[in-house]
Each structure stands twice: as structure tokens, then as C-alpha cells.
Predict the 3D structure of the following.
Amino acid sequence: MTEREDRFRTHRIIQIDEDIRSGSYPSVSFLMEKHGVSRRTVLRDIEFLRDRYQAPVEVDRKRKGYYYTDPTFAIKNVLLTEGDLFMVGTVMHLMEQYKNTPLENQFKSMMGKISELLPTEVSVDSGFLNKDVSFISDPLPKIEGEVFEKIFEAIKTRRIISFRYRSVSSSEYKTKIFNPYHVLCHKGNWYVFGFEHESKEKRVLALSRINEISIMDNRFDFPEGFDITKEIDMDFGIWHSNEKPEIYELSFDSRIANYILEREWHKGQNMKKRKDGSVYLKFKSNQRKMILSWILGFGSLVTVLAPQNLKDEIMKTAGDVYAKYRNDNVD
């Protein structure tokens, strides 16, 4: 049976169950006409009800129709195919990367509600089991549930928030007053974008570094025409920058040509393979910090063609790394 046929049968059986429970004693001919199927199909559906759901369905000879000997019986309305169950199992593994956020408990609650809708026994072909699929997620910092919930509430109600925040390079927490505009999830890490009152600048702050959060009575207005995609180049990162976008031109070694070619690194990219096997990549972005880190990850397999200031920064970083290890060897 194809997936499409399986879905039609599931809908049909649920409706047959409703007809039987209604006490109208639906006959074979009635069910044939209602669902546009053959007598053989109706009889198969009735047998399926008996076998799969242990439905106490019998025929009333006087009324010439079906009824349940147990009037309290009802099948549970499950519209999940084997493929759907496979996807649910896969998504459960994907959610492991959100272990340290309130989404974990919310997701478990949702899955619990779905499981309550399932019949007591579910038969799934072993070919759909995903025991051979594994997911490796990045190590993620823990986010306080109160932080997660209050930031979303503040965005919804447009109210200013106050909290204590510790930057990545500091060991001390500082009090901040903040207008939260938008929440971002970047590679499993959660951030809030908004306006910081102290600096009077737009900032991106990590939720994992926030504590002692409270929602204030004061409200704020979103900037006119606010669009998060105009504030952040989301193809390369989540950091807000007031710098104008620059043109980046890179040349990747032929040894990783396939790796580079099979991916879309930026929606506005211009990419082509050269005769020598290397790959040329060009795009515009203002995410200098993220691009620098990304390029360094390729080591000597990438050459920066432009802009010159990025080439200079790469050279300086490489020099600092060389000096560090050189000094270690001297010691």
C-alpha cells in the first residue's frame, strides 16, 4: 500500500468509527456509497478495525448494520503514517541540542500529548526505525528558564527588561536596561537583539550570560520599519555591525573544491570553479568577525583576495599564532 493510500484508509477508518459510535448502525452499502469504495474495501476496513484496534464491532441482523458491543469504545484519531513516526523519532534526536533551554521541557510535553493520541500498540516497519541515525551537537551553555520565558514575553508585550549580564571576556555581571526586539538561534546558541540603554546602541546579547531578569512596567516602540535581516547578515552570523558591507573574494584550494562547491555559503554569492581546480567565491557582508573566524578554520587551504584589510588581519593573526608557539618552544 502506498503512503497516499494509507492516508486515505486512515481517514476512512476514523470516519467509519465515528459512524458506528453514532448509533446509526451503518450498513455495508451505506459505507460503500459514503466513501466511494467497493464492498470488499469496506469489509477489509472492518477487519482492520477488529485486528489493529481490537474494536468490538459486530453486525446487528435486525438493523442490518454495524455497532460496538462496548458502547464506550473509540479508536484514537491518529493520522501518522510510518514515515511520520520516523520523522517524529528523528526530530526527538535533533531536539537534544536544546537540552539546556526551556524548549526541552516544552518539547517533551508536546511529545507526551502526541503519544496519548497513539493507539496502545503501534506497528512500524523496521525499515523506518532510525536506530542507525546519530546526531552530534555542539556543547551548549545552559539558559535559565526564567530568562528564556521573560524575554519572549517582553518582546510580545513590548516591555523593557532589566537584567545582569556578563560579557564573554569578563568575570563580573553588570546591570543592563534593554529593549528586546528579536530572538536569534545561531548553531544552537540563543541570542537577543535589541537596544541597550547604557550605550544607546543596538546589541546582540547571549541568553546564557543573562541572570536576575525582570520585566519593567515601561514599554518601548519598535523602530519604524524594523527588519532583522537589515540589521544582521544572517547568512554568516548574528553579530550586529554598524560597518558598511564589504566585498569578500576568496580562493579555495582544489583539494576542498567539492566541499566548497556543494554548499551555499551566502545567498548573494558568486562562485565558480577555475581551470586549475580551485574555487573562486565572492559575496558581500558586514560580518567581519564571523568571516575571519570562518576563514581561519580552513588554514592554508584558502587565500583571501579581497578586501586588503582582511588580508592584513589574517596575516597578523597568523603571526600571533606563530609567535605564541615559537615562544613555547623556546621555553
